Amino acid sequence: MALLPLSEETLIDRYGPHLNYEPVGGWQSSGTPDRLVQTHCCFCGVQCGIQLKVRDEKVVGFEPWQDFPVNQGKLCPKGVKRYLQNNHPDRLLAPLVRTNDGFREAEWDEVLTKVVDNIRRIQQTYGKDAFALLGGASLTNEKAYLMGKFARVALGTANIDYNGRLCMVSAGAGNKMAFGIDRAANPWSDIPLAKCIIVTGSNVGECFPILTDYLWRARDNGAKLIVIDPRMTPVARTADLFLPVRPGRDSALMNGLLHVLVERNWIDHEFIAAHTVDFDRVREAVATYTPQHTANITGVPAANIIKAAEMWGEAQTSMLLHARGIEHHTKGVENVLSCINLVLATGRIGRPGCGYGTITGQGNGQGGREHGQRCNQLPGGRDIENPQHRQEIASFWGIAEQDLPQKGLTAVELFDAINEGKIKGLLSISFNPLVSLPNTALTQSALEKLEFYVAIEPFMSETARHADVVLAGSLQEEDEGTVTNGEGRVVRLRQSVKPPANARVDWHIIVEIAQRLGKGEFFPYGQAEDMFGELSRASSGGPIDYAGITYKRIEENKGVFWPCPTPEHPGTPRLFEGGKFMHPDGKARFHAIQYRPPAEEVDADYPIFMTSGRVVSQYLSGTQTRRIGPLVDQYPNPQVEIHPLLAQKLGIKSGDTVRVESRRGELTLPALVVKTIRPDTIFIPYHWPGERSANRVTNRVLDPISKIPEFKVCAVRVSKAQRGMQIADCGTQKAENLLSPNGREPGRK
Length: 749
Ligand code: SF4
Description:
Elements: H1 8-15, E1 35-40, E2 49-55, E3 58-64, H2 77-81, E4 96-98, E5 103-105, H3 108-126, E6 131-135, H4 141-155, E7 160-162, H5 169-179, E8 196-200, H6 204-207, H7 211-220, E9 224-228, E10 241-243, H8 250-263, H9 269-275, E11 276-277, H10 279-286, H11 291-298, H12 302-314, E12 318-322, H13 324-327, H14 332-345, E13 355-358, E14 377-378, E15 382-383, H15 387-397, H16 411-419, E16 425-429, H17 433-436, H18 440-449, E17 452-457, E18 469-472, E19 481-484, E20 489-493, H19 506-516, H20 528-539, H21 551-557, E21 560-561, E22 588-589, E23 608-613, H22 629-634, E24 640-642, H23 644-650, E25 657-661, E26 666-673, E27 681-685, E28 699-702, E29 709-710, E30 714-720, H24 733-736
Parallel strand pairs: 6-7, 6-16, 8-9, 8-12, 9-10, 11-22, 12-13, 16-17, 17-18, 23-27, 24-26
Antiparallel strand pairs: 1-2, 2-3, 4-5, 4-18, 14-15, 19-20, 20-21, 23-30, 25-26, 25-30, 28-29
Helix pairs in contact: 4-19, 4-20, 5-14, 8-11, 8-12, 8-14, 11-12, 16-18
Bound molecules: iron/sulfur cluster.
């Protein structure tokens, strides 16, 4: 086998100079396709329906899918350009093995032998838990289930977690504690029926753009829209009331709103008495959160706190929606519970136009957290520490309960364990922690310490560059399966094209590794539908019950909402109808929350809050969207959003190079002076790697329950960069998306 070091020159030689830019077909390629495939967007949790145009076994464009009810043909900027990822010149076409000079292409037999030999060696030398797995919330339900079973049955390791640990877990934990179930309470079709809507910590217009349409339809129906955010996001600009909360003060604001509602007696005593537990403790907890006290904590004027409570209190129907803005905190779960308190206290849940929802960020943010790829979870949303749940799944899988590993480490903890030398081997799929984890330096040092690392990816991610073996996996459109969108609707992904050249479908790779480990009998799948059948049977009787869902039913109904326990059950678009919650006594739980500050407050040395988030044209760590030319053009590089008052104080103009420093690291980027942010706060989007990574400065400290890092608030100082200082990497888009000549950073063996 000839060595093929994939340096930038080699790739440009091989694929031409247009790396990272529109490779084929032009803008929505014209011409008659061979076929149109009804499937879904590969990006956010809205999971818009789309028809991919396929010609000559390549995805060459798209058509709207008008009949799919969630988006009715509409797509956002990412959705209309998603087809450009297929057939991209950066696509990995064969497995790669590290050499002294970089990587070379290899045959599957060689790489899989290497993977299995190293799994065996590490587990025999250091114990089973020394080999860890990291999955993703963009994986299909089938792959999420497979990853959990592969970890526990084929590898026998406790250490499996997923990148949803950086995304949805605070909401999941809060939902489970309050309602006994982890799912948004309502279908999105309830949003236009609400007369008051609170959107808190959610940049709907950029992160879930198609949901904006639901908010506007509600406003057309006379709804009042209240937006809570440190930034005046696009949807905040159309709100009736905007509350620019100081970063990290969300639970105080919710307590303040509830204080006013209690004081004005705008609470539903009957509902509280019949369907909930522990309201008295909450009433006591919010008693001190007078509007002025709340204003002092949150920076929101007392009069506007009262106004928001009046809008919510007087409405007949209402919905509260949140996303990562309140969840990415060391008290993310408490923030979520404080929102739920507001909804429960007013009894507005379980009815048309009344409810609550967390908007899922990743494509399968909901389903990815349901089927057992979390360290604390077994299929059907079961608890790995619950003896009965353990017995049910062990017996379903045909193994002894004592052979089922116990709870493992969460994603961030896994990297700490690698740094401490406790974990020696890693397999990751669709996870790019070098961009997405806080404190990049710690993540990098962990990757450099691994004895063996194998990554399954369709594109070479920044993290995969550190791997010993990179297995060319599949894009979303190259596999069959299902995902569950943010409202709990299970939808069907269709294979539009096969993986190119010598790349393989992800789950085929995982199953073959299991077979080579001598565990093939546990993974007898001929097609994705076989896995779905198994996961739905495994879920039967669990908290997340898919037992009545089949591919056929999903196709016939354009999605089925779980819980759906039997083939005759119609599915459950709206939860909690009739005030029936999922705790054993049927009642919802209030939780008394006392505000506590973020892990890192501003001080004389670091006097400015920093918060991070997304822009409309990019998605998560950017492995896909940074390769799609028109999306790159739309927002080529991260910028530091800074308010004019702060900019003036620091002598900064738009376009100036500024240095942002925290206790963990620094970065230099161009400034963008905007009036749409609090004067005490800066914002940096996080989609870029290396010197441009916002996570060089964010804080790795975790929520004690959900173990999510505090991405949304840390303390920084900002200064105008000295003359001659370069803006980090801003001209090296191509280089960052390629393998470095040596793949690894200096110092790695
Ligand atoms: Fe894709 Fe989400 Fe945009 Fe819909 S809203 S097109 S699912 S990124």
